[in-house]
Amino acid sequence: MNWTQIPLGPLQTNAYILQNESKDAIVIDPGGDGQALLNWLKSEKLKPLAILLTHAHFDHIGAVDDVRTEYNCPVYIHKQEQDWLQDPAKNGSSRFLGTNGIRINEADQIINEEKTIKIGTFEFTVFETPGHSPGSVSYYVESEQIVFSGDALFAQSIGRTDLPGGNHQQLLDSIHKKLLELPEETIVACGHGPTTTIGSEMDSNPFLTGF
User: Which positions, given as ranges, span the membrane (predicted)?
Assistant: First the structure.
């Protein structure tokens, strides 16, 4: 399996595209610039099988319907945020984009608990990692030693918790009890900025020391 990081949308949110040898693909957090993303997928001759959302903030969902309409693929979201997709107040787009609020069609698959999701040849372990938002999840691909953490954990930082539903202590608990329990060599594919590793954040993330 190969994966590609593509910053998209007004906040340059990292979308991740995973692909296998058959050119099947999984799209994680397509945050915006829908036509540019579609052009890239077509240029790579990829066929998305599903869209996985780490959470429903506007900068992570902006191109969802572009991809879903083009490829007729299902969208996965945690139950805590399934109604955020249609609500600009909850997904934050009314606050940051004003009258140009983002409304996305309902998700096709609702994540109700931590579990393993199998889509074609792709397999993800879903961890509930709330704190940045109540329905935040992380997707772990053990075979590739990578976790897609959304806005829970960043290189030398953690997600903001001052938005509706955010909770600083809950985020710290999620990081320590879920993400930092992964092998230290695990790559952390963050929602913004560069990738990092679990080991690096354990050693030097200033927000996690002294917890």
Answer: none
Q: Which of 207, 78, 205 has the alpha carbon at shortest distance from 130? A: 78
Is residue 47 one of the residues assigned to a domain?
yes
pLDDT of residue 7: 97
**Which residue in 138, 144, 156 sits closest to 195, CA to CA?**
156
Nearest to 80 by CA among 31, 116, 132: 132
Q: At what angle do helices 34-43 and 64-71 cross, to 10 degrees?
A: 40
At 105, list the tokens. 């069609």
Residue 209 included in any domain: no
pTM for the model stands at: 0.96
Number of residues in the chain: 211
For residue 182, give the CATH number of its domain. 3.60.15.10
Is position 210 within any domain? no
Quote the CA–CA distance of 163 and 176 in Å, as a whole number: 21
Residue 117 forms part of a structural domain: yes
Instruction: Evaluate whether 38 touches 30 at the Cβ level (below 8 Å).
Output: no
> Is the Cβ–Cβ distance between 15 and 25 less than 8 Å?
no
Give 10-residue mean pLDDT values along the chain (211 residues): 95 97 98 97 98 97 97 98 95 82 95 97 98 98 97 97 94 98 98 98 90 51
| Domain ranges, residue 65 | 2-204
pLDDT of 210 reads 63
